[in-house]
Specification:
The complex is a heterodimer of chains A (76) and B (210). By secondary structure, chain A is an alpha+beta fold. Helix content of chain A is 33%, strand content 21%. Chain A has 3 helices and 3 strands. Chain A is globular. The chains are: A alpha+beta (76), B mainly beta (210).
Amino acid sequence: MALVKLGHADGKVTTVTIPLTRTFREAVRDIIHADGVWRAHSGDPSPAWVESDIEQLATAISEHFSCPVGQPNRSV
Amino acid sequence: MKVNTGQDKQALALAGATSPGYTGTATATSATTLTATGTPWSVNQWAGHLVIAAGSTYGVVISNTSSILTIDKWYAPATPTGTAASTPSGTAVFMIHGGNAPVACMAITANATAAGPTDTSLTAEITTAGGGLIRQFATYAHTTGASTYTLTGTYTANGSDSLPVVIAKMGTFDTITPATGVMLHETVLSSTATLTASGDQLTITQTVTM
């Protein structure tokens, strides 16, 4: 299972749980496709930010949407 | 649309009508059944619940008599879509969880007949073993404070599938085993999708309003 968080411009967060049976490509497609998760949860063209417990997944989504990885102004 | 069995499932899932569950020791098991000691249950009291046996495997209860649970299969938690787990010992300690099994699986069909509230299964569900269009666990998503959630499925056709096929309808279920379990939603797709070759993909998102 993978977790992905997609930040909205208004501060809301879409939390996505991807089953462990998905391939990497399918997991990315689940989120970025026109009939996928992001379009179903927001009218904005892209998330404000993305996070995931799988770094490559966050990177792929970030590159597709041209949004940053990690919540802005979040201290570690 | 949410079908009638889905309404019942949702009410049970939220209210936990038979909580807090049940624990016991089996007197017999098989690949799809578990027999309790005595006759402790009402018929179908546990339909839709999870039974966990021997601490290592679980099944989704399809139905029950006063003493026998019938499940879709014994799940291996790490590989739930793969081969069923070994049947637990005939004297295994088991627990029936008080809550209902989540409706986390999505199935598709080429059948385009309108969805009906009394439907209990997805007509002509694609069940090709080894195919990429078979029932699958869906990706779940929810946005902070929203009154909706989504289930998303991405299907990749492969050499085992009968192609071409025109996908017209989907359903959501509480089991991964094709043609079993409780159907919560049945929805005709907003547009059909034609899959013609191995590698073709289809993504479907079902938005559920709570």
